[in-house]
Amino acid sequence: MKKRHVETIYFISLFTSLITFFFIVYPIFNTISLTKGSMLWVTLRDISLMHPVYLSILASTITAVVSLFLGVPLAYLLARKDFKGKGLLESIVDLPVVIPHPVAGICLLTVVSPNCWVGRLLERSGIEVVGTLTGIVMAMTFVSIPFLINAARESFENIPWRLENVSRTLGATQTQAFFTVTLPLAKKGIVNGLIMTWARAIGEFGAVIILAYHPLIAPTKIYETFLFYGLFQAIPLTAIMLIVCLGLFFLARLLTQRKRSS
């Protein structure tokens, strides 16, 4: 009886796995297969179509770096310190994940507009946000930084306190222990969070079109092409974006796996 139960569970798991795999993979490869080589070549040679792709890669990379410097210290604080309001702070970190992204864009826009003191301060400092690369990065960072913070926090939490304490008994300060012991041990989780942050950022659309419709990034350009010219005109650029994203994503994963094995 027990054996039959295990076999049934295995069959159900296999069946649902195949459905999930098909649901995720087939639309992607079907879209790529619909694009003729000649159309891909024409799209690749069109600067007006490829510039948004380059800009998306640039903006998402900057976003990942910014998230790294902002997110890792906060993740360490959440992992190592217990303080009043910690649960509230952890909930605030997750807020961008549950907020609809156009809503996030509106929220950011209200902050950087001249009606808010932050916007007036940026204006006096000569920093333009709306309709600039800065605005794109700001929108991407807002929606993607939780992935890095949560991944880094979980990685720090898995590192025993005693390793830092041993380092401190040998004369290291808390800061030195962090950089020489804790950070290297947490590198795997941080890198995984960095990859997910980059992947989330390069696909962002809703918040970006509110804060910085121009200059166009790839998702905005694809949406604009679909809106004005229809589905089949949007497919070549969509296929290129899929190939670029999948290629860079799996390359990053491969490099991470190799470093882990070495």
What layout of secondary structure does this protein have?
Blueprint: H1 2-33, H2 37-45, H3 47-80, H4 86-98, H5 101-112, H6 117-124, H7 133-157, H8 161-169, H9 174-185, H10 187-202, H11 206-211, H12 218-229, H13 231-261
Short descriptors:
262 residues, single chain, 13 helices, MetI-like fold, globular, 0% strand
Structural class: mainly alpha
Q: State which percent range the strand residues make up.
A: under 5%
- Give the biggest sheet: none
CATH class label of the domain at 51-217: Mainly Alpha
Nearest-angstrom radius of gyration? 22 Å
**Total of DSSP H or I helical runs spanning 4+ residues:** 13
Q: Tell me the name of the CATH homologous superfamily of the domain at 51-217.
A: MetI-like
Q: What does the overall shape look like?
A: globular
CATH architecture of the domain at 51-217: Orthogonal Bundle
Proportion of helical residues: over 70%
CATH topology of the domain at 51-217: MetI-like fold
Task: Round the mean pLDDT to the nearest integer and report it.
Answer: 90
Order of helices and strands: HHHHHHHHHHHHH
Total count of strands: 0
Distance between the termini: 45 Å
Report the uncertain regions: none
Q: What does this molecule look like?
A:
This protein is an all-alpha fold and about 260 residues long. Helix content is about 85%, strand content about 0%. α8 crosses α9 and α10 packs antiparallel against α13. The longest helix is centred in the first third of the chain and has 34 residues. It is globular and about 65 Å long. The protein starts with a helix and ends with a helix. The model has no long low-confidence stretch (mean pLDDT about 90).
